[in-house]
Amino acid sequence: QVQLVESGGGLVQAGGSLRLSCSASGRTFSSWTMGWFRQAPGKERAFVAAIRWIGSNYADFVKGRFTISRDNAKNTVYLQMNSLKPEDTAVYYCAADPSGEGSWTYWGQGTQVTVSS
Known about the structure:
Blueprint lengths: L2 E5 L2 E4 L4 E8 L7 E7 L6 E7 L2 E4 L7 E6 L4 E6 L8 E8 L8 E2 L3 E6 L1
Parallel strand pairs: 2-11
Antiparallel strand pairs: 1-3, 3-8, 4-5, 4-9, 5-6, 7-8, 9-10, 9-11
């Protein structure tokens, strides 16, 4: 059974930084595509970033501010968030795509990020 557990969320002032972590258990995920999504109140879940063996990609609204990385030895993926804005406030979810074809099969429970102005 695959489990994804996020951590690192919290309250931060605008301009600040947070680093989210997603720990995967149950399988070795080194070949999987891993991603981060977010859902703000009253809005649909949105793609934030993904990392695969050929590289990473980002939503336009986080380019230059957020960085996704992974440590396969620790089965962990990270999201470093800098220059945070109030509009980044959301629940952030980690997701795994074993196929690498955009099928996000596994999801974490989410971690709240709140950015105050």
